[in-house]
Specification:
10 strands; alpha/beta; 234 residues; 43% helix; globular; single chain; Spore Coat Polysaccharide Biosynthesis Protein SpsA, Chain A
Length: 234
C-alpha cells in the first residue's frame, strides 16, 4: 500500500516523512529511503496469545477475527515507534489512511502534546456491552495522531503497554484506558481528520481511514486502477 498512500499524500503535502519498517521487503526499504527517512526498530513481544487467558482470547477473536494474533504484535509497537520519530512534532498515520488535503492545520495540535479522534459511538457501545470499555471511558482511535515527541502522555502509554498489554486488544485500547484511569486530558482531533470508513462516504473528510479487511479490499481496487493509469510511482 506504500505507493497508494504516497500518491494521495504527495498530491497535497511536501512535509518530510519517516517510514517505520515493521517487516518491509528490500525493494520497499529502498523505495522508502528515496521518499524520506526509514526507521527500523527492534520489535518486542508483548504477552502473545499463549499468555492471554483463554476466555479473553476467544472474545478478542470474536471482535477482531482470528487474524488478531498476526497483527497485534505490531499494534503494540506503536507507542514505542512514536519515540523513534526524527521530528520534534509528528503526525502519525496508519498506512490505510487516504490523505485528501493538506495536513498543515494539525501542527498546532502536535505542538500541544497529543490529539486523538474518538471511535464512532456504535463501536464504543459495542465495546461497553462486551465489557471491553468502562461505562464512562472513551475509546480513541490511534490511526491518526498528531503528537509532540516530548509529550508526557507518550511515556505513560508505553508503560501501560509494557506492564498490562495482556489486558488489551491493541495499542489504542491501552492508551484509552490509561487516559481514563489516570484522568488525563487529551486534545480532540476532529473525526474529519480520521474518518471511519464504516460511517460511509464523506467528501468533507480530510483523512479517510480505510481500516479493516473491507477497507483493504477497497484500497486494492483503487490501487489496480491507479496502476492501470500509470499514476503510481513504483
Amino acid at each position: 500500500m506504500l505507493p497508494w498512500w504516497w500518491y494521495h499524500y504527495a498530491l497535497h503535502n511536501d512535509t518530510p516523512v519517516a517510514f517505520c519498517d515493521l517487516g518491509l521487503s528490500v525493494e520497499a526499504k529502498e523505495w522508502c529511503q528515496k521518499k524520506g527517512v526509514l526507521v527500523t526498530p527492534s520489535l518486542s513481544d508483548f504477552h502473545d496469545q499463549h499468555h492471554i487467558p483463554q476466555e479473553r482470547a476467544v472474545l478478542w477473536e470474536r471482535v477482531i477475527g482470528s487474524g488478531i494474533w498476526n497483527v497485534r504484535r505490531f499494534w503494540m509497537q506503536k507507542p514505542f515507534l512514536f519515540s523513534m520519530t526524527p521530528f520534534s512534532y509528528t503526525l502519525w498515520m496508519d498506512l490505510d489512511c487516504e490523505v485528501r488535503t493538506s495536513i498543515d492545520a494539525l501542527s498546532t495540535l502536535a505542538r500541544a502534546g497529543m490529539a486523538l479522534a474518538e471511535e464512532p459511538p456504535l463501536l464504543q457501545e459495542g465495546f461497553r456491552a462486551l465489557g471491553l470499555l468502562e461505562p464512562q471511558e472513551t475509546l480513541y482511535n490511534s490511526g491518526v495522531v498528531p503528537f509532540s515527541k516530548e509529550s508526557p502522555l507518550l511515556a505513560l502509554w508505553q508503560q501501560e503497554v509494557s506492564d498490562r498489554s495482556h489486558h488489551y486488544i491493541g495499542d489504542q485500547e491501552a492508551l484509552s484506558h490509561m487516559l481514563f484511569a489516570q484522568n488525563k486530558k487529551i486534545s480532540t482531533l476532529s473525526n474529519l481528520y480520521n474518518w471511519d470508513r464504516a460511517l460511509g462516504s464523506n467528501r468533507a473528510a480530510h483523512i479517510f481511514h480505510w481500516h479493516g479487511q473491507k477497507g483493504k479490499e477497497c484500497i486494492v481496487k483503487e490501487l489496480e486502477h491507479l496502476r492501470a493509469l500509470s499514476f503510481l510511482d513504483l
